[in-house]
Amino acid sequence: MVQTRERLASTASERYLLIYMIAVLVIVTALVVIFFIVFLKRKNKLLQEKMEQQRAFEAEIALAQTETQEQTLKNIGWELHDNIGQLLSFANMQLSILKMQMAEDIKEKFKDTSDALKEGLAEVRALSKTLNNEVVLNNGFEKSITNELNRLKKMKFESAELKIIGEKVDFSQRNHEIILFRILQEFLSNSVKYSEAKNIEVTLDYQPNLLLIKAKDDGKGFDVNDIEKGSGLINMKSRSSLINAELDLTSQPNEGVMLLLRYPLFNS
Prior knowledge:
Blueprint: H1 2-100, H2 104-107, H3 111-130, H4 133-139, H5 141-155, E1 159-165, H6 175-195, E2 199-206, E3 210-217, H7 231-242, E4 246-251, E5 257-264
Parallel strand pairs: 1-2
Antiparallel strand pairs: 2-3, 3-5, 4-5
Helix pairs in contact: 1-3, 1-7, 3-5, 5-6, 6-7
């Protein structure tokens, strides 16, 4: 009887010890899991903060580069308007004076030269305006695009048209007009230099919360992979990221080039 009681007491003691050990193991395991979860959350938070800092740093660099480029373009615009423009005006005036002193049969020979000089002067003045962001802001986004297309049409294209769809919405930030215009200007400049296109078209599609900008030419096109690291595309993508716009450039050989920009109208 006594031995039975001792065995029962020993069994109960072992059971309690086992329960205690299991409880300790569960608590230790729970603490390890909690520590691991907290560690992962902390690690993810640090990584996220690091990524945000990196993005902020890259955005600051891109903004500084954009501001430097804008100032450079503005200076070039001033030089074209004030110096080159004045020289061409002076040359045109001198040619006019010279023509007055010539016989009628000789004057006709200077007509082409005089016309070319006048066109060159008009082109310099028009170009100087598109390089000055203050002029672009004063003219407004749509008029600036129209002026640029008219200028390029005289230079190269058979047609260069702007189409507007929907009701115009004012930009929440005026400097975004400049950035969008510079992206389009980069695209148009590349069309002039490389596309061999005859026609170009820009469409502004005002949607409820989005401005969809599409620019396309009918030139020879190219393989997009060949220009992935080109400075022009890098500039366009860098500028678009500053204003939270999505940029897509698509092209195939002999099928022209199309630029698609999705700009959120109520950018913060």
